[in-house]
Amino acid sequence: MKKESKTDKLIKRYFGISGPLDEFRRSEIGKACTSSLVWTQLILSFACLVAFLVAEYSPEIVGHYFPLVVLFIMLIGGQNAYHKTVDKGVQNDDQEERAPLNITKKQLRNRAITLAISLPCILFAYTIFTKSLRQHQDFWTTFLKALSNPKALALFFIFFFFIGVIFACIYYYLQVDDVRKD
Fold it and tell me: Which residue, 127, 118, 116, 114, is CA-closest to 153?
């Protein structure tokens, strides 16, 4: 039996395939990815042109927001390829082929809680880091100022924890049916 390559494992993981990666699935994934790659390349070319033209007037804004725009475009391109394969039945598999996750519901719940706490903290630190770069200040000085600012703390607790709870719920409820029954 031929061992799967890392590329095959990544393809199966990304497209949610638990069975074998046969020729039909491989060709459908290839068609969807090629189409998405062409559109993503065209959109990124246009975005780079816009960024080039805007950078002459406000390079700080382009430097701050353009990586997020590129990431957003790439995520949309990847999801486009995924959804094109859903209609073709690439993800269809037998329930017997799927192995249960090797974790319990309690472990999954703890991971979701860790995600709900760590994600807002990372987003808060990123916000403080970018603010310190824009103001040309030390990170720790800006961090202490943000901790003493009630508006920044309110934003952190309301907005970021809301994001953390949403991502934790998505993480938990997508995998809760697949955990082993103990």
Answer: 127
Of 60, 78, 58, nearest to 70 (Cα)? Answer: 78
The stretch 95-116 carries a mean pLDDT of: 75
Q: Which two structure tokens, joined as six digits, stand for 56?
A: 């002459």
What is the average per-residue pLDDT within 116-128? 83
Task: Look at residues 129, 104, 79, 109 and name the one whose alpha carbon lies nearest to residue 171.
Answer: 109
DSSP 38-54: HHHHHHHHHHHHHHHHH
Q: Which residue has the higher pLDDT, 170 or 19?
A: 170
CA–CA distance, 179 with 50 (Å, rounded to integer): 47
pTM of the shown model: 0.50
Collapsing DSSP to helix, strand or coil, 179 comes out as strand
Of 97, 96, 95, 108, the C-alpha closest to 182 is 108
* Residue 16, phi-psi category: left (phi > 0), alpha (psi -120 to 50), beta (remainder): left
**Cα→Cα distances 117→73, 110, 124, Å:** 27, 11, 11
In whole angstroms, give the CA distance from residue 53 to residue 6: 40
39-60 per-position pLDDT tens digit = 889 999 998 998 889 888 888 8
Query: What radius of gyration do the chain's Cα atoms show?
Result: 22
